[in-house]
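Let us practice reading a record.
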Amino acid sequence: EIMKFSVLLPTRNRPELLRYAVESVRRQEYDDWEIILSDNFSDQDIQGYAESLGDARVRYFRTDRFIHVTDNWTNALDKATGDYVIMLGDDDCLMKGYFRRIANLISEFSEPDGIYTNAFLFAYPGVMPDSPAGFLQPYGYAPFFTGRNVPFFLDRSEARDLVRESLNFRMRFTYNMQHSAIRMAFIKSLLSKGPFFQSPYPDFYSTNVMFLKARKLLICPTP
């Protein structure tokens, strides 16, 4: 079964970075996706860039005023029509083969509620004072990655313990939404409790909610 992916891509005034994020999606060897480009009242011509692509899968939306990041994420999610949702910042990129790999995991593991993967952290040269040459390094320090190299379901009691640590201000794993592919049906099952993205820090909130409520949370140690 072919899965459709919705890539939520909130942005504001960073077209020079945005185009790399968008191209990392468009160049995937997998066709059933959409980008929800949610422009948070940019001064620059993001709409013109989106339209110049001539790709109907890149769907552009603009807020009528500057809104909070959490509201912009919700704005993007409300427009999504895919089976699974991925959040991509305008300074992020998908790795080559991402969709194909995730689609295979969805099929192999019978449509998990969420897939949490390892990731890479990249810095351009001249950006980080301590690393003038830039760097590329793994970015996932969760204890459940240690010694693992094949996908597995996270034990629910371990997931709850990790959330309990979060609520005690101990960061045992990374909360960035870019680590997660989330099933739309799971997101909709939670909407009676309010929007999926809440609080001033929507990635902290939503990742913890996924760890707490997902019945099947698949961990993929591959970045």
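A brief commentary: The mean pLDDT is 97.
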